[in-house]
Amino acid sequence: GAGVSQSPSNKVTEKGKDVELRCDPISGHTALYWYRQSLGQGLEFLIYFQGNSAPDKSGLPSDRFSAERTGGSVSTLTIQRTQQEDSAVYLCASSFSTSGGALNEQYFGPGTRLTVT
Amino acid sequence: ILNVEQSPQSLHVQEGDSTNFTCSFPSSNFYALHWYRWETAKSPEALFVMTLNGDEKKKGRISATLNTKEGYSYLYIKGSQPEDSATYLCASPRGKLIFGQGTELSVKP
C-alpha cells in the first residue's frame, strides 16, 4: 500500500520568503507528526495532530511556523519569513495513534530538504 | 524535560562483528520505548516498540532488551553486514515521541 508521501522533496528558498511543505499520511492513520533534523542535530519534534483534537504545537520553534491538517488527512507545514537556521530536513510521520503514539509505531515519509539561502 | 540519551554517538565495525548500543531514558512514568533505523537517503523505519520490563524483541539479526526500572535499552546486531549501516534512534513517548540523538553505525566490508 501507499506510504507517507511528502512534497516537495527538495526546496531551495531565499531568506525572508514563505514556504509550504506538504504531507500525505497513510490512509486511516489518525495521528500525524512533523519533525525536523537540522545538520548535526537529532530528530526534533515540531507538532502533532490527533483526530479532531487540538494539535500539540509545543515543538514549534517560533511563531513563524504553523501547520494545519485538513479533513483529518493532508497536512501543510508553513514557515513564514524563512531564516537560514530553518534549513533542515522536515519529516512527516503518521500512525494509528492513541496516547500520543506511545504504543504505535510511526511511519515516516521521505522528508523535504529545505535550504534557505 | 525528558532526556533520551544514546551511546555511542557513532560506531565503526567490520563486517561479521557483533555490536550493541545503548539508549537511556528516565525510568519514572515509563510507558514505552521505540527503536527506529534511519538509513541515509531513506525514511526512518520502526524496528521495535517495547513496553514490558525485561522484554526482549528480535527481528532477524537485530534484537533489543529493555530495563524499565533502571531506564535503559540495548540494541544488539549479530554478525553486522554493510546493509546494517544506518543511524539507530530510540524514542520515548511523552505525549509525543522524544528522540535520542542516535547512534550512527558504519559496517565496513
SSE diagram, text form:
The complex is a heterodimer of chains A (about 120) and B (about 110).
Chain A: E1 5-7, E2 10-13, E3 19-24, E4 31-37, E5 43-50, E6 65-69, E7 75-79, E8 88-95, E9 107-108, E10 112-116
Parallel strand pairs in A: 2-10
Antiparallel strand pairs in A: 1-3, 3-7, 4-5, 4-8, 6-7, 8-9, 8-10
Chain B: E1 5-7, E2 10-14, E3 19-24, E4 33-38, E5 45-50, E6 56-59, E7 62-67, E8 72-77, E9 86-93, E10 97-99, E11 103-108
The fraction of residues in strands of chain A falls at over 45%
Query: Main sheet of chain A, how many strands, which sense, barrel?
Result: 6 strands, mixed
Overall outline of chain A: globular
Tally of DSSP β-strands of chain A: 10
The topology string of helices and strands of chain A comes to: EEEEEEEEEE
Amino- and carboxy-terminal Cα gap of chain A: 37 Å
**Total beta strands of chain B:** 11
User: Which protein chains are joined by the largest interface, and how many residues does each one contribute?
Assistant: A-B, 28 and 23 residues
What is the succession of H and E elements of chain B? EEEEEEEEEEE
The end-to-end span of chain B amounts to 41 Å
* Rg of chain A: 13 Å
DSSP helical segment count of chain B: 0
Percentage of helical residues of chain A? under 10%
Unreliable sequence segments of chain A: none
Can you describe what's shown?
- The complex is a heterodimer of chains A (117) and B (109).
- Chain A is mainly beta and 117 residues long.
- Chain A has no helices and 10 strands.
- With 109 residues, chain B is an all-beta fold.
- Chain B has strands spanning 5-7, 10-14, 19-24, 33-38, 45-50, 56-59, 62-67, 72-77, 86-93, 97-99, 103-108.
- In chain B, the strands form 2 sheets. In chain B, strands 2, 4, 5, 9, 10 and 11 form a 6-stranded mixed sheet that branches.
- In chain B, 38% of the residues are buried.
